[in-house]
Amino acid sequence: MKQRALLLALLFSATVNIVLVATLTARLLVPSRREEPPPRPFCDGLALSAHQAQAIDSTRHCFATEVGGVCLALHKERQRLVDLLAAEEPDTQAIAACMDRIDSLQSILQRRAVAAIMHERQILTPEQASAYFAMIRARLNVDVPCQRLAGAGGQGGEDCPVAGSECPNQRR
Known about the structure:
Blueprint: H1 2-29, H2 50-86, H3 92-123, H4 126-142, H5 147-150
């Protein structure tokens, strides 16, 4: 019985050692895939130094950490708004209160985004900052969701049923 236990212990030890040696050998011999750096929107083409890239990554990580909960709360409020709107008899006061909470959360997001952009601006050289803001402007010019809604001078288009009068859906 003792011989059997000793034999099992030796086999187990040998198996563990073989697995460890094989794993280490594989790691040394097989080239590891280099992880690609995280994407840095609005930074491609800015020729960031390693220090600048690290500082921007840190700023963006802090920003994401700060706004994660706000984004989740905003999403929940938007879902709640849809539920309120879909109710058989919508409660206009509850809808208004929900919209106020959404406005507040969006304001928090906007302020934190501006603070993050201002911090990133300090990291960049003047030439990089100029190119950075050119990229942001270009993105804003491509994605103009309200342009088709604005119609003639933002007063409502010809198809607007309340053109020339106050829209009944406008919040006060």
